[in-house]
């Protein structure tokens, strides 16, 4: 996809990571989830998507969004915001977690993910500058950036500090 629109980033530990940060409505995020669920259907359809979502409410209907999350997602990690609060008041029937920010959401999603899963960052709500394409981007060379850098040793660095340790088995996964 285009930058910030269902953009494939990298495979880390067998987990495909996608950036859909321009999806700031429930409908846009539902489209991304449904598109990626088609990819995972070839694997005897299992819920493989770990959704990172949340932000500021636009007072849009959320009923269909919750149905899509429950149908296609393995788990959802929700970033703080009044839209997240509203979403939590509905019937999310899958594992759901709250994160204070995008960095924390990534840490949680990588911890939950197993090989073959998909991590999808698709807010579904307004972010008011909370995220940008620089937060998740594909850089030239063997590095995955997520508001910081993952080095070839598998450590994610944000502002020079190690924030998550990941075992990377091959250079191609990184």
Protein model, in words:
- The chain has four helices and eleven strands.
- The protein has helices spanning 26-41, 63-72, 82-88, 102-112; strands at 7-12, 15-19, 49-54, 73-79, 95-99, 118-121, 136-138, 144-146, 149-150, 155-158, 161-165.
- The strands form two sheets. Strands 1-2-6-3-4-5 form a six-stranded mixed sheet, with helices on both faces. A five-stranded antiparallel sheet has the order 7-8-9-10-11, covered by helices on one side.
Give me some keywords for this one.
single chain; 174 residues; alpha/beta; 6-stranded mixed β-sheet; 5-stranded antiparallel β-sheet; 4 helices; 25% helix; disordered C terminus
Pick out the low-confidence regions.
Answer: 131-174
Following the backbone from N to C, one meets helices and strands in this order, namely: EEHEHEHEHEEEEEE
**Average residue pLDDT:** 75
Helix content: 25-40%
Number of strands: 11
- The CA-CA distance between the termini, in Å, is 19 Å
Tell me about the largest β-sheet.
6 strands, mixed
Q: Strand-residue fraction?
A: 25-35%
What structural category characterises the helix and strand content?
alpha/beta
